[in-house]
């Protein structure tokens, strides 16, 4: 499994700061892409590495056109773990955020089935801000690294991001990943400004978006599923902020989490420290 090292440039940082996202060059080689595609198959057929359990049941949706996703694939799959905890991802994210250390918040393994010839929105991901789900964290300065396991564009339901929307702050009610009505959500959130840009990626490239950047995705019109592995990353000193919304990660701090408790135990591995 090999990562292809890349030095983030000042121009890359400026793009990330201006647009709220940045697309990397190819970061993982073809062998790693193939292993991650196999990891998908193994996860969806409940063939797990290690002796433990997944964080949530890996249950296939009743409708085969529906999006499948699993959180913390790294608990149950070695290839996913290798990639989402990779120091290179941490180093690049540290550069983009101007942080000295980066930890894993959680990962996602996402499978968008083919909807070729179907009239369906079941594979859609609603416009949302990731941080809307993560308000128990004391910083919005978090990053999602979305790694494409095939060439990805709007034909196969690739992500779209709203340029500059990371500067809008935390927008109330933007925890709308599971709302498949993209037009309705746009009407709700746009307030006139809405510059929608497709994330066009070759297999092995990644898009790095800020925790406040609005993004979503539409149908997969291609004949093949759209596969990705996603790492959600945070600054190394991120801590729990009480009273701001529930997230399963808070349980991983123990039975009596306290306000200000750092997310720094083994559930939140350190990827990189300067
Ligand atoms: O896979 C998608 O289309 C959206 C994924 C997403 O919202 C995310 O990774 O933050």
From TrEMBL:
Q: Which Pfam families match?
A: PhyH
The cross-references to Gene3D superfamilies, in alphabetical order and at most eight, read: q2cbj1_9rhob like domain
- Cross-referenced InterPro entries, in alphabetical order? Phytyl_CoA_dOase-like
Q: What is this protein called?
A: Phytanoyl-CoA dioxygenase family protein
Say which species the protein is native to: Paenibacillus glycanilyticus
What is this organism's lineage?
Bacteria, Bacillati, Bacillota, Bacilli, Bacillales
């Amino acid at each position: 499994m090999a990562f292809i090292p890349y030095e983030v440039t000042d121009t890359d940082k400026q793009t990330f700061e201006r647009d709220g996202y940045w697309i990397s060059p190819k970061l993982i080689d073809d062998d790693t892409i193939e292993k991650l595609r196999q990891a998908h198959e193994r996860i969806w057929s409940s063939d797990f590495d290690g002796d433990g359990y997944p964080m949530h049941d890996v249950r296939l949706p009743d409708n085969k056109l529906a999006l499948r996703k699993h959180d913390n694939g790294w608990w149950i799959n070695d290839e996913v773990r290798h990639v989402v905890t990779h120091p290179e991802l941490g180093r690049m994210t540290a550069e983009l955020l101007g942080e000295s250390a980066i930890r894993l918040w959680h990962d996602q393994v996402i499978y968008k089935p083919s909807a070729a010839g179907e009239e369906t929105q079941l594979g859609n991901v609603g416009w949302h801000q990731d941080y809307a789900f993560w308000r128990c964290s004391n910083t919005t300065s978090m990053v999602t690294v979305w790694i494409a396991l095939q060439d990805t564009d709007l034909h196969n339901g690739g992500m779209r991001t709203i340029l500059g929307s990371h500067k809008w702050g935390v927008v109330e009610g933007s925890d709308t990943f599971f709302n498949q009505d993209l037009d309705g959500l746009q009407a709700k959130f746009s307030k006139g400004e809405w510059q929608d840009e497709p994330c066009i990626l070759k297999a092995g490239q990644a898009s790095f978006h800020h925790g406040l950047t609005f993004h979503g995705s539409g149908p997969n019109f291609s004949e093949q599923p759209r596969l990705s592995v996603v790492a959600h990353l945070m600054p190394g000193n991120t801590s729990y902020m009480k009273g701001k919304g529930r997230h399963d990660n808070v349980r991983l701090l123990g039975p009596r989490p306290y306000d200000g408790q750092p997310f720094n135990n083994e559930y939140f591995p350190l990827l990189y420290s300067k």
